[in-house]
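Continuing the batch. This is chain 6 of the set; chains 1 through 5 are on the previous pages. Same settings as before, nothing changed between runs. Recording input and output for traceability.
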Amino acid sequence: MIPPMDASGAGGTILHIGVGSFHRAHQAVYLDALRKSGDTRWAIVGGNIRNDMQETMAALAEQQGQYTLETVSPVGERRYERIEAIREVIPFDPQLTRLVEVGADAATRIISFTVTEAGYYLDGKNRLDAGHADLRADLESGSTRTIYGALTAILRQRVVNGGAPVTLLNCDNLRSNGARLRAGLLDFLERRGESNLLTWVKAFTSCPSNMVDRITPRPSPDVAERVLAATGWADRAPVMAESFAQWVIEDDFIAGRPAWERVGAEMVTSVHAHEEAKIRLLNGTHSCVAWAGTLKGLLFIHEDLAVPAIRQMAFDYATHDVIPCLDRPDHPSPFDLAAYRDVVLHRFGNPHVCDTNQRVAMDGFAKIQGFIVPTLRECIERGAPLDATAVLPALFFEVLRRWHLGELPYRYQDGLMDEEAAHAFFSALDPLLVFCSDPLLWGPLAAHPELVAAVRNAHARVLQFIRD
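Output for chain 6:
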């Protein structure tokens, strides 16, 4: 085995798994900026573990990994930049042959991934929930449908190739995302009986947590039309995002890293304060707005913010419950959380981004669990009211009801939801009680009397909001 080394000056490859819009509007853009500054020692090789982006991946491969980023400011100023940080695009194959080959190469010093919050299958104790079919298949048959199965295949071959250390960088909106990925991976390897690989992973990988932030809608056809008009390039894989971007990263890279701090990333010892503010005040609020707007028949986030009642729900959630949890006398926040709340609401109201309720409303089971339950739990522990936060699960409950009835204006996607169990909520004598008792959503809070009472009260207000 090769011991850890300081490879900061050597450069190398970043293998990224999950080459979706967000990665191409965020992490790839930071590396592109660094390369354009003259530091070309690092490049990205990208691929996917699911065959769900065939057209985009084919277009990226044809364009040698290049694409256009369109950014739009709150006042509608649009800017176009060709991003060239991706050196190779790996076509999907079920065996992940090339993905494993690149990931096992000692020149690959970082393996990063964006597979959505629902792609980690973790319970409240950071143990794997093997009730999910894809995860169960990876555990039992050695397939590679999940990030754990894919990483296991890559790292096993890496050990065969000499065992060069590597950083595993989780770039999803998951609290303590590096630590939780590590816990899930170690649990996976233990369940698979991969004792030698488990020992190697503990010694020769690092998993820094990081906080990522940039609103990135799914690109609509008019993005390509604007890119063509502005640049003359018929780009088949453009991506669009707001002008704001933030990346805060724990500086714990076992095999070196790019000098991201030179292009605006913040390298820190601990990302905890940043991620708590972002996950609760931005991600939680985003879900609140999307669910509420969906129930009002709206399609876009900026339309939701124009409804006074929806803006007030979001403001009250942030102000009355979240900020008091994050800024306490015994543990004051290092940030001006009220100012951050206001910036978030301003960003959501940008009419030029055209972010959809469909995109933001998805994966509600993971979002209730990750974004909202911590605030509810802490309010209960402090003896504080739950009213403002309880509105969010009450909104989601009504979104689920419409999904159950086939009345949503879009296809709802949820990687954690057990569809049969969710449909069963609404055949129960007391659907709301069954919803509030579901351990997949609530963990240890399931059926807690204060939770049930608060969501019941909030649900009555939500029904009135829908009628008004």
